[in-house]
Amino acid sequence: MAGEKIFAGSRIRDLRNRNGQSQQGLATALGLSASYLNQIENDQRPLTPGILLKLCTMFGVEPTWFSDSGDVQRMQVLREILGDPLFSTMPYPRQLQEAVRGAPWLCDQFVTLYRAFRALREERGPGGAATPAPQPGTGSYDSVGDWVQAERNYFDEIDRAAEGLYETARLDEGGPAEMLGRYLRDRHDIRIVTDAGLDREGVMWRFDRRARRLSLTGGAPPESSAFWLAQVIGRLDYGQVLARPVRRSGLGSADARALATVGMSNYFAGALLLPYERFRRAARQTRHDLDLLQRQFGVSFEQVCHRLSTMQRPGAEGIPFYFIKTDIAGNVLKSYSATRFSRARFGGLCAQWNVFECFSAPGKLHVQMSRTTDEAVYISVARTVGHSPVSYFDRPRLVAIVLGCAVSHAPELVYSAGLDLTDDRMVIPIGPGCRACIRTDCRHRAIPATGFGIDAGSEERGVVPYHMVAP
Asked: Which of 176, 180, 214 has the alpha carbon at shortest distance from 195?
C-alpha cells in the first residue's frame, strides 16, 4: 500500500462503532484532534502512515483492511458504463477518481440508473418497441450483490453464531450430513427423507413444518445434503440473527430483502460447515490446497472457494481473495472481492481469462497469473463444477469457479509451486471487457474501446483490423 493515498473513513467508523468508541475517544487515543479525525472519517483527508500503523495496532487488523478497493471497483464500473456508445467521450482517469472520491453516493445512484436503463433497453429489444416496464428482479439481485460486496462478504454476528454451534454441538465427531441430520432429529424431531421427484421440479429440498418432514432431492452428493441441512438449521434456530444484517442493509425493495435473507442463510450454512478459526488454521497449514480442504471438512470445491472469500474477520483476516462463479456463456452468477480486483459488470468478460479454458477441460484445475489494466498482478485458480448426467435426457448445469488473490500472497498458496513469479512472460494481461479496456495492443479484442480513435490503416493488416488511437 506504499505510495497510495488511502481514504478509509467508512472503515474507521465501522471499527470504532464495533468497539463502542466515540469519535472523541478514538481521536484522543490516536493523539489527534476530534476535528481532524472527523475529516478523515469523511474522506476529506487521507490516512497518514503513522495513523494507519496506530489503527492497525489498536484494532488488531492488517493495513489492507483500510485499502480503497471500493474506489477502484467504482472507477471500473463507471468506465464500463461510459464505454456504452450512448456516451460519446470517456473522461480522464483523474476525473473519474475525483468523482468517486468526491461523490461516491452520486456515483452509486448513476450506476443504479444505468442498470435500470439497460434492463429497459433489453426488454424493448432491437426494434425499440414499447413493452411494460422491466420487472425489479434483476435490479434487486444486483443491489444485494453490491451490499454484500460493501460488507466485504463478511457478516460477523452470523459467522460467530455458526462457529459457536459447531463447537457446542460437536459437529466434528462424524460426517457433516450425518451430524447435522442427527441435530435436526434430536432438537426439532424432524424426519429427513429422500424424494426423487424433487429433481424433476428443479427443487433441492422442501420443508413441511406441519409434518416435521424435510425432503431432499435424490442422488445429491453428501456435501450438498450437508449444506441444505445447515441452511434449514439456520432458518429454524437463528432466524433473528440472519434477519438483523438485512434490516440494517438499507435495501429498498421487498425482493432485494428476500434475496438478501436467502444469502444470509447460505452464508450461515457455509460458516457452520467451515467454522472460521478451524478453517483459517487448516487453510494456512495446507497452503490453501483446495482438494485437501475439501476432504478434511467433507465439503465441495465451490464451498471451500466461497468460504475463503469470506475470511475477513477483523484481527484474524485470511488472504483477501476474490471469488467468481460463471457459466459457459460468461454470465456471472456470483462475484465477491476482498481485493482491488473487479470483473466486468456490464458486457462480456475478458477472453484471456483462465475461466474460459475450464469449459474445454472440465474438472481440470487451471492456474494463471494475470495483470489488470491498473497494473495489479493476481494469481488465480479456476475449475468447472457440476454433476454427471443421470440419463441421456439430463442436461446438468456446468459452471466454473475462479478464486484469486494478489500475487504478493503467492508464496502462501500451493498453486505457486513451479511458477516463476519474476518472469513477466508468465503474466497474462486481462481487462474488464473490450468496451472499457484501455489496452491498445490486445490480439483478442472484439470491439474498440469507447473514447479511442480508430486507425484502420491502408498498408498493413493485423489480427484485429484496426489500431486503437489514444485520445
From this structure: 214
The three-state secondary structure class of 468 is strand
- Planar angle of CA 402, 407, 411, nearest 5 degrees: 105
CA-to-CA dists, residue 380 to 45, 354, 403, 428, 433, angstroms: 34, 8, 5, 11, 18
205-208, strands of its sheet edge to edge: 191-195, 213-217, 205-208
Instruction: List C-alpha distances in Å: 269 to 234, 262, 281, 331.
Output: 7, 11, 19, 25
Which residue in this structure is represented by grid cell 428443479?
A: 202
Provide the grid cell at 239: 432466524
Tell me the pTM: 0.77
Region of 304 please: left (phi>0), alpha (psi -120 to 50) or beta. Answer: alpha
Per-residue pLDDT of the chain (471 residues; tens, 9 = 90+): 444 567 777 778 878 887 888 999 999 999 999 999 988 887 778 888 889 889 888 887 767 667 656 677 777 788 778 877 777 666 666 777 778 777 878 888 888 888 888 877 766 665 555 444 444 445 677 788 888 888 888 999 999 999 999 999 888 888 899 999 999 999 999 999 999 888 778 888 999 999 999 999 887 889 999 999 999 999 999 999 999 999 998 888 888 899 999 999 999 999 999 999 999 999 999 999 999 999 999 999 999 999 999 998 888 889 999 999 999 888 888 888 877 677 666 666 788 888 888 888 888 999 999 988 777 889 999 999 987 776 777 777 889 999 999 888 999 999 999 899 888 889 999 887 787 787 888 888 888 776 677 777 666 667 777 777 766
How would you write 24-77 as a 3-class SS string? HHHHHHHCCCHHHHHHHHCCCCCECHHHHHHHHHHHCCCHHHHCCHHHHHHHHH
d(CA 422, CA 369): 11
The beta strands (E) that lie in 291-409 are given as 322-327, 332-337, 366-371, 377-385, 399-406
**Cα 422 to the center of its chain, rounded Å:** 28
Describe the crossing of helices 137-150 and 254-273 by its angle, rounded to 10 degrees.
Answer: 50
> Cell 420443508 belongs to which residue?
207
In order of their start, the domains of the chain are 9-67 (1.10.260.40), 152-314 (no CATH)
Phi and psi at residue 195, in whole multiples of 5°? -130, 105
Taking CA 405 as the corner, what is the angle to CA 340 and CA 224, rounded to the nearest 5 degrees? 110
